[in-house]
């Protein structure tokens, strides 16, 4: 563990999993840790001991392991509606345990590989098929 004495878990905006900076106030969303941009005042979110061997050097709560053991994503990318793992295991897998589509989403079987079980409502009735059933153009 890179920080044995300090619990760095925190909740960033929109209930996203985050990393707590030294100041005990700033909560950096998981996917902004080790992105080569310092979000903490002292840059602790980009330190070598944290980012030196991704994902192994990261605390476990910042990491989500996809069904395919070769792939991992940041914990705050789980259940974000996007197919970040490439096989939808971060959206539909039993480990992901995602709630049903939120208000900004339409539930269907998407045509695009980018989405898993919901498409953004802003794509509804835009003249382009995003659901196999065409429900995004006729119902939603």
Could you outline the blueprint of secondary structure elements for this entry?
Elements: E1 9-12, E2 16-20, E3 27-29, H1 48-51, E4 63-65, E5 72-74, E6 105-107, E7 118-120, H2 135-138
Antiparallel strand pairs: 1-2, 2-3, 4-5, 6-7
Question: What does this entry look like structurally?
Answer:
It comes from Trogon melanurus. InterPro entries: LDL_receptor-like_sf (IPR036055), LDLR (IPR050685), LDLR_class-A_CS (IPR023415), LDLRAD1_C (IPR057430), LDrepeatLR_classA_rpt (IPR002172). This protein is mostly beta strands. It has a domain at 1-77. The protein has helices spanning 48-51, 135-138, and strands spanning 9-12, 16-20, 27-29, 63-65, 72-74, 105-107, 118-120. Strands 1-2-3 form a three-stranded antiparallel β-sheet, with no helix packed on it. A two-stranded antiparallel sheet has the order 4-5. The chain has a two-stranded antiparallel sheet with strand order 6-7. A hairpin with a 6-residue loop joins strand 2 and strand 3. The termini are far apart. Residues 1-5 have low confidence and may be disordered.
